[in-house]
Design brief:
The protein is an alpha+beta fold. Helix content is about 15%, strand content about 15%. The protein has a three-stranded antiparallel beta sheet with strand order 1-4-5, with no helix packed on it. Strands 2-3 form a two-stranded antiparallel ribbon. The protein is elongated and about 65 Å long.
């Protein structure tokens, strides 16, 4: 594409509208980001999800809202190929469904001796994992 065509395409992309509530919990957006003014937070815990204390700057996205779609993430700056744009904790975790032997449901180590949880009967590797 020519530079002019690329610029026209970029101008035509509808990235939605600003969200004025907290981007995490949808509570009142009382604070904004010093990096991305359109980002709103209800307080420190939600702000730190977007700008972790051990990062120099926030994750490189902003949250927008678009009719027919709802909330969406939009790049707030150019993102390098392979750059980590956010992390999150898993809602749930467990052994891979393709495993053929038992694995501890707490630490996921292989269970070779047949040890089972006294409460639920699922495989565990030790008494600490049963707790």
């Amino acid at each position: 594409l020519s530079q002019k065509q690329q610029q026209q395409e970029e101008e035509e992309i509808d990235t939605g509208r600003d969200v004025f509530t907290c981007w995490v919990c949808n509570g009142p957006g009382l604070e904004s980001s010093e990096f991305y003014a359109e980002m709103r937070y209800c307080g420190k815990p939600c702000r730190e999800m977007h700008h972790p204390p051990d990062h120099e700057e926030p994750w490189p996205f902003s949250v927008r809202e678009k009719d027919g779609v709802g909330r969406l993430l939009v790049a707030a700056r150019d993102i390098e190929k392979g750059e980590l744009i956010f992390t999150e904790k898993a809602m749930a975790s467990g052994p891979n469904h393709t495993l053929t032997e038992d694995h501890c449901l707490n630490c996921l180590k292989p269970v070779t001796d047949g040890t089972r949880c006294s409460k639920c009967g699922w495989p565990i590797c030790c008494s600490e994992c049963e707790e």
